[in-house]
Design brief:
mainly alpha; elongated; single chain
Length: 115
């Protein structure tokens, strides 16, 4: 089921990217100096339009992922502390259970086992 879902999603997406790339092969100049005049005198790179657009999208996705990851640091830290406290509590409960069972008289344990 997952394989079919992946095919249904990724094949049209790949075709869309392919068609977009084929339609936008014209080279564009990307200026790297924000203070240079528009005459192209500053440092620049020439690349196909589809490459510029797809690279911009990829950088945006990465920036969003990093931003989200950094934004959830406190949540992950709190979850780690909660897991450690839950583990400590489980160990303490098990220790108290063993102590309680050890304090029961032999008759009670036999009756408890028959239930």
């Amino acid at each position: 089921m997952k394989a079919v879902l992946r095919i249904v999603i990724f094949v049209p997406l790949a075709l869309l990217i392919l068609f977009f790339s084929m339609a936008n092969r014209t080279p564009v100049r990307i200026g790297l100096d924000p203070f240079a005049a528009n005459d192209g005198s500053g440092p620049s790179v020439e690349a196909p339009m589809f490459l510029v657009v797809l690279a911009s999208m990829a950088i945006g996705v990465l920036a969003g992922g990093v931003s989200s990851w950094l934004g959830h640091l406190s949540v992950r830290r709190d979850a780690k502390i909660a897991r450690a406290e839950a583990k400590k509590t489980r160990l303490e409960v098990e220790k108290l259970r063993q102590q309680a069972l050890a304090q029961l008289p032999a008759d009670s344990t036999a009756k408890a086992g028959k239930r």
